[in-house]
Design brief:
With 100 residues, the protein is an all-alpha fold. It has a domain of 66 residues. Helix 1 crosses helix 4 and helix 3 crosses helix 4. The longest helix has 13 residues. The protein is globular.
């Protein structure tokens, strides 16, 4: 699953865009450098019933921003992303993507 697909699924399961979840994370103090990935994993499990893979994809965005390495961009594998920039404002507003 690509990073963007993880974020889309997180949106589907929580009802919030990744950007909105970043604001929730900040409100919980998870935007601090001392926050550990395990904190986000526990939060996602407890509040949303999401597993480690989804939490770690979000942790990546929370801790390092929306730009990802181009390792899988343009490949044909299951983990490919279309861009090095992840869309955080929701599936329905992503340019060129169908809502749903």
């Amino acid at each position: 699953m690509s990073f963007q697909a993880y974020l889309d699924t997180i949106e589907d399961r929580t009802g919030m865009t990744p950007r909105a979840l970043l604001a929730v994370a900040a409100g919980k103090g998870f935007d601090q450098p001392t926050t550990k990935a395990a904190d986000v994993v526990a939060w996602f499990k407890d509040d949303y019933g999401l597993g480690r893979g989804h939490a770690m994809a979000f942790w990546r965005v929370l801790s390092q921003g929306a730009t990802i390495p181009d390792t899988h961009v343009g490949t044909s594998g299951a983990h490919r992303d279309e861009s090095t920039e992840l869309w955080l404002d929701g599936r329905a507003t992503r340019p060129g993507a169908a809502a749903g």
